Here is the input.
Amino acid sequence: MKRRTFAGMVLLLLVLGSGMAFGATYTWTGGGTPGLWTSVNNWGGTGYPGQGPNDVAIFDGTKPTAPITNFGAPANTTFAIQFTNTGGPGATLQLGTGATPLASFTTSGTVTGVSGTSNLNATNTTTLSIGGVTGLKSFTAASGTTTISGTTVSLSGTTFNANGGTVSLTAASSYTLTTGGNQFNNLTLSGAKTPAIPGNLNGKGN
Here is the structure.
């Protein structure tokens, strides 16, 4: 009996540990404080992306996404951002506005879009830090520095706007920069390995 109980406890811990590793999924509903990322009612009332590790923020295009003008203070910034609007209207995650700029937005997760419908706009953001980016229709970088730390950097098929800022790629492992002919203002590369860079890489600055 004791052996069975012990085995059951081990199994329960494994299940709980697995759930914690995967994190929680939150879909934007826009019912909370306008512009506040950490308002739980903007995510259905049960929490927000960044409350725990490895969360996922879903934007499905069914609810208008108010500009994020207050990032708050998430306990964890490992959340991923996913656009899932395959059949509905396009979704845009806008960080800051002209009247209320956003100082910074940070996550080590990848921003994954649905080609032809998904947009990430950091025009009025000073610094943007994300883990990776792929599948977006349009991507406007931060006015200061946009740091991408993951191995996925795909701007092919994306309308990219450097916004006069610097894009810094800092992956610790190898990555492929797929630009699709997009033009950078200033681009810095660092990391443990040399990235694979296409021959049509364009830049206006350094």
Observations:
- Residues 2-22 form the longest helix (21 residues).
